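I have been asked to look over a protein record a colleague put together. Alongside the sequence sits a line of tokens, each denoting a local backbone shape. I have pasted the whole thing underneath without changing anything:
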Amino acid sequence: SVRTQVCEVCGKQFRRPPGAKPAKTCSTKCRRESQARHMSTLRNRSGQTDCLDADGRLPTDPTPEEIEAHCERLRAAHLAAKRLSNPSH
């Protein structure tokens, strides 16, 4: 018998086959959203709600632009390391 459940994020009904692990969300996207909410509520419990901005970030949290710049630096360093380790290419 297939179990029908309701996603805790979007409210959509989804089905789980018998023997499958229990799930509270219908998709990976909803699961990540649920995890993000859980982390922000854990962080907010420690009294840091005052300094959260409109996006739910702390002043110390990196902005999306800073995250992208960091990824670019990592990619450049990785490519440089590959070139040094294999100079024939």
Summary: Residues 3-85 form one domain. The chain is about 50% helix and 10% strand. The chain has a mean pLDDT of 79. The two ends are 57 Å apart (CA to CA).
